[in-house]
Amino acid sequence: MRKGGVSPGVLLAGVVLFLITALYGGRGPEGRHPSDALPLPAEGTLFLHYEGTKASGLSPLLKAMATVGGERAPTLDALFFVPPLFLNAGETAALLAWEENALHFYMAARLPKEHTQAISEGVFPKGIAPTLTGVSLQEVSPGIFGVRRKNEDLSLFISVNGGITLFASSPEKMSRMALTLERQAEPIDIAWKLERRWPNHIFFSDGGLFSGIASMEGLPAAKENLLVTAAWRDEDDGGRMEWHLEGLDTIFPPSLLKEFREAHWGGRYTFPEPLVAAVGFTIPERFAAFLEDGRMSEAFGLWENADELIKGLLAGPCILSLCGSSKFLVYSLPGVLLQLPERGREGETFAEAFWKKEWSALVPGVEKLDGFPVGGTTAIPFSIVAAANFRMLQLGLIDRDALRHERFRSIYDYAPLLSDIENAFFWSYLDIPKIASALQDLAKIGQVAAKMGKNLRVSPNALFQAADALKEMGGVTIVMPVPEEGFLEWRITKDAAPTEEME
Question: For 384, phi and psi rounded to 5 degrees?
């Protein structure tokens, strides 16, 4: 026996082990990824493909798709009966595809070894089984188990293949995944180019849906797919998403896309506090051509033949915000303010004409705003503002007190991220807790209206639920430098106040 050295056999085994780890690290027993099980959708199929390091990144997408799909997405509803399965899932890949006039689901995930072993035997893991009351697995074909809840068959099927747990909306889809995993069918294969190191990625294809709609509307659109690639990462206090679009030039004429030009936002835009939400974008000159004569005047109760003046105002930067305050009954709501910068004499003409409408006879008087020589504001019958100077036209429903100069703050005070973006096609800022609070107030108004026999066509309960779902989020900022790309950042409110319950 050799002493004091390393055995050649041990050294060779170590080298082999190192090579195996380097080549197949993070893969299944056969060197496979969960994404290897996802089949390539047929040409012209609308689909969404997800890949992530943890299944938790998929949860928001599933909830959103379940809401959109409704009754045609029963599998997504079924998934919410077995959420403990995904709490400890690692590498995950999923495919949602619109096939056979319904939303179908494919998912492959790397679960803990003990979970994989239990599912392969047709039972839920011991650690999570007590939490799945009334839910069980029933073998429908060799190795494929259907999920049952209180003796009701759900549209969700589970199987284990080579250490990878598979989920599908039907046994047929499950068989298709098995064939794909065995390389007997072509898998979906996406080369992630956008932030490849980030943990979550999605790829969306509309299957030619939007180009078809554009063609029906008379646009010279080619029958092509609109493709969206996105990546995002979570942080302790929020996260960031970036995306890129391909195919817009096949839906809209290139000449029209060029009109969706960038605008210089700089730091000149201010908003009355508190700011709930704001959005800035550029309205192209050609947009006015799509407006039918008389529609604007009819919709907004404006004076006759106001359409031409309105069309002349549209082209250029536009900022719409929920800010300041307004009142309805005894409840305080965010005000609505539309700002149209650099409208010159046309903006002043509009503000002047606005207060000459017949209904203005009900207004006791129009008070001037500092810095705005034309138009003004009134509190009766509502808090209305229509004021202009040569550089800005302001229109909205907002209390005069909120329009005091000292109450205005720069957009950068609300969204510091925007301080690095001077030129952009589109931007927006959302203060989610304030939106949740506004939804609560709307729900209360709905309750009062219902007691008075009035139907506002808005469910107070739905508004309370929406507010509750939003309460943990903080600020959200979206920026699109050009129509084809953009990014989103969000922040989380750690100590969210509980949402009020309905009486």
Answer: -110, 140
Helix axes 307-314 and 344-354, enclosed angle (nearest 10):
140
pTM over 0.85: no
Q: How far from each other are the two terminal CA atoms of the chain, in whole angstroms?
A: 85
Which two three-digit tokens encode residue 184?
């007997």
Are 246 and 224 in a shared domain?
yes
Helix (H, G, I), strand (E, B) or coil at 245: strand
Predicted local confidence at residue 29, as pLDDT? 47
Phi-psi region of 200 (alpha: psi -120 to 50; beta: other; left: phi over 0): beta
In terms of pLDDT, which residue wins out, 400 or 187? 187
Structure tokens at 400: 């005069």
Q: Same structural domain for residues 153 and 229?
A: no
Say how far apart CA 299 and CA 302 lie, in whole Å.
8
DSSP assignment of 54-83: SGGGGHHHHHHHHHHHGGG-HHHHHHTT-T
Task: State the Cα–Cα distance between residues 463 and 491, nearest whole angstrom.
Answer: 22
> Strand, coil or helix: what is 403?
helix
Q: What is the mean pLDDT of the chain?
A: 78
How does strand 270-272 pair with strand 263-264? unpaired
Tell me if 79 sits within 8 A of 63, measured CB to CB.
Answer: no
In a domain, 84, yes or no: yes
For residue 308, the one-letter residue type is E
Kindly state the greatest CA–CA separation across the chain: 110
Tokens linked to 371: 């810095």
* Plot region of 209 (φ>0 → left; ψ -120 to 50 → alpha; else → beta): alpha
Cα 24 from Cα 294, distance rounded (Å): 67
Residues 142 and 78 in one domain: yes
